[in-house]
Design a protein that fits this description.
Shape: globular
Function: May function as somatic storage protein during early seedling development.
Number of helices: 10
Low-confidence stretches: 8-30, 43-48
Distance between the termini: 67 Å
Strand content: 5-15%
Number of strands: 7
Mean pLDDT: 87
Largest sheet: 5 strands, parallel
Pfam family, one: Acid_phosphat_B
Protein name: Acid phosphatase
Order of helices and strands: HEEHHHEHHHEHEHEHE
Strand order of the largest sheet: 5-4-3-6-7
Keywords: Glycoprotein, Signal, Storage protein
Helix content: 40-55%
Family: Belongs to the APS1/VSP family.
């Protein structure tokens, strides 16, 4: 009997505490059929119910801010988030997030009434969209180290970057629908041949063209300016950009972005 009374008192105390916290934080209430209203149990505090720190909470919030484009112009990932970002990229969640994007892209593509004149194109970015540089970044802190152009270009020049599986599947499905693919990358002209070869090794065998960055024409210009200008050239030549996919916001912002854009996850670096 004493034990039962103690349990009832504990339950009432828990409900009162939940009510207090919910009112303080404006939480939603749950209305039951018999007229009694209980607040939905509040979210855990960052320190946890036992006062212990819940690891990686701030890093997941940081990644959300990055993907939502609320955190911009950053140079490296936070030092304390190296393990979090690494586990995300090497675990299944990165693949699942990418799959959610590409499946939505394909669903949209299937809904299109294509003209069939060969002028419908889909723009693909290269790095972290079509090809993955994860083997490189795994040895460089998943973005915690400052960008090293020399080291990264040495990796690119190997021409062995694997495809992102979900992007490759989307690419093949788009071709099956009669949509042509165009690659636009921030890689320079000096890496055109190695990039073409890498794309073919990664099974991107059929595409309209590969656009690499003319560093003289676009010297000092942002990626948004560069990619907007190159997309405009396609539209001026009669092409219709029905879709556009990239891992950076600079891939899908600006002008001439296409009928619809899709953003793949990338918490390793930011390009303006």
């Amino acid at each position: 009997m004493v034990r039962l009374v103690s349990q009832i008192i504990f339950s009432l105390a828990t409900i009162l505490l939940a009510t207090k916290l919910s009112l303080c934080h404006g939480k939603t209430t749950l209305n039951l059929d018999h007229g009694i209203t209980f607040p939905i149990f509040p979210l855990r505090l960052k320190s946890g119910l036992g006062g212990h720190y819940i690891p990686e909470t701030s890093c997941s919030s940081w990644r959300l801010g990055v993907e939502a484009h609320n955190i911009i112009d950053w140079k490296t990932i936070p030092q304390e988030c190296e393990d979090y970002v690494g586990n995300y990229l090497l675990g299944k969640q990165y693949r699942e997030d990418s799959k959610a994007v590409t499946e939505e892209a394909y669903k949209y593509a299937k809904s299109l009434n294509l003209v069939g004149d060969g002028k419908d194109i889909w723009v693909f970015d290269i790095d972290e969209t079509s090809l993955s540089n994860l083997p490189y970044y795994a040895h460089h802190g998943f973005g915690v180290e400052p960008y090293n152009a020399t080291a990264f270009n040495e990796w690119v020049d190997l021409g062995i970057a694997p495809p992102l599986p979900e992007s490759l599947k989307l690419y093949k499905k788009l071709l099956g629908l009669g949509i042509k693919v165009v690659f636009i990358t921030g890689r320079p002209e000096s890496q055109r041949d190695i990039t073409l070869n890498n794309l073919k090794i990664a099974s991107y065998n059929t595409f309209e063209t590969l656009i690499v960055k003319n560093t003289t024409e676009y010297n000092g210009k942002t990626a948004v300016t560069y990619k907007s200008s190159e997309r405009k050239k396609f539209e001026e030549n009669g092409y219709r950009i029905v879709g556009n996919i990239g891992d950076q916001w600079s891939d899908i912002l600006g002008t001439n972005t296409g009928n619809r854009t899709f953003k793949l996850p990338d918490p390793m670096y930011y390009i303006s």
